[in-house]
Hints:
Elements: E1 4-17, H1 19-24, E2 35-48, E3 52-56, H2 63-70, E4 78-83, E5 87-90, H3 103-113, H4 118-132, H5 147-160, E6 165-168, H6 177-192, E7 196-200, H7 204-210, E8 213-218, E9 221-226, H8 228-244, E10 259-268, E11 277-278, E12 283-291, E13 299-305, E14 311-316, E15 329-337, E16 345-354, E17 361-374
Parallel strand pairs: 3-7, 3-8, 5-6, 6-7, 11-17
Antiparallel strand pairs: 1-2, 1-4, 8-9, 10-12, 12-15, 13-14, 13-16, 16-17
Amino acid sequence: MQPTVIRFEGVSKGYLLRRSLARAAQFWDPHKHTNTFWALDNVSFDVARGDTVGLIGPNGAGKSTILKILAKVTVPTKGCFSVTGRLGALIEVGAGFHPDLTGRENVFLNGAIMGMRKREIEAKFDQIIAFSEVEKFLDTPLKYYSSGMMVRLGFAVAAHINPDILLVDEVLAVGDTAFQAKCLNKIAELKEQERTIVLVSHAMPSILQHSSKVLWIDHGKVQGYGNPDETVEAYLRTVHRDTEAKPELDSRLSTGSPIHIVSVQVTSLAPEANDMLRYGEPACVDITYRVSQPVDDPVLAVTFQDVRDYPLGGLPTRFDHVEIESSPGMHTMRLVLSPVLFTRGSYGVTVAIHDARIQRYLDMRPRAATFMVDGPSVATREVSGHFVFPHEWQSAPVPMSVSDRALP
């Protein structure tokens, strides 16, 4: 059994709010002079050496606060914590850097903040710069760097101090795809060396693929901690349930519009269907709308989103040369997914109705419905991302045009 390297014991972090801010945030109690917002509330957990812990939860749940406490950027209001070993942290873009210093100078500054001696930084300097890919800007003040360049430099320093514990916030999303792959390879290398990693991300595929445990935080409280599949699924079901509990569809765009979206429902068409859709089986999206006066050739569009509301793709009726009924009255259009190609997880549906030129919104309902899919999981590493596309693998002859060439 590996020793514990991170321990939180009843940790709470509170922030005093001024009256105007507290009232705006609905925390104000008129009977008190100040109100406290608790970013963390009695949080306890242990992390063993070699664990990779994914931190999940909605925005404002307290994930970044946990990392800031671990990095000693802030201190708990109540409770105590301990960290055993050298810490490398990339928790904010530009954290530990000085904007007026050059990239070269900031490597030494950031390395020193993380506990590296000057001789150690000098020995690893070339590796750090090569990894960061900012050689051309090494003697340029950091204030002229893009956020992506700062993330490159920050991660390069944090990953090359040979940390016993590496903290990584969502900032990796700033880098380009190739650099993200390089960072994930570095994280995999650290995992093989039994280093401890705490990773914050809203990307559930990334959490499932890279975590040995998942800690779910919501409203500053621990909601779950343990098996990645079980914890992520419980979190997604909560997101799904909370979305379903929203009141009837409402949209400020619909005021004065000749078309109003009334309801959106996602239903499985498979035999013995339950509340979940299944990969490889048919399902449908039913959109009911009311037309108060005739509209010339409106276009209905359905967009699917992941748990972060990131759009995954859309299907407008115009693409399939389908005309929707636009005479006064109540109508329903059905989009049939035959079959469902989504991987396991929770998804949202945004529905919009455009004018004939697809220039204006006549009505639009963000995340009008949600649905859960049961099927292949990215945790198995046998699939990647949110879709399994219709496909067939074949062995083929090497084209003459590339037989003597190789990709750079």
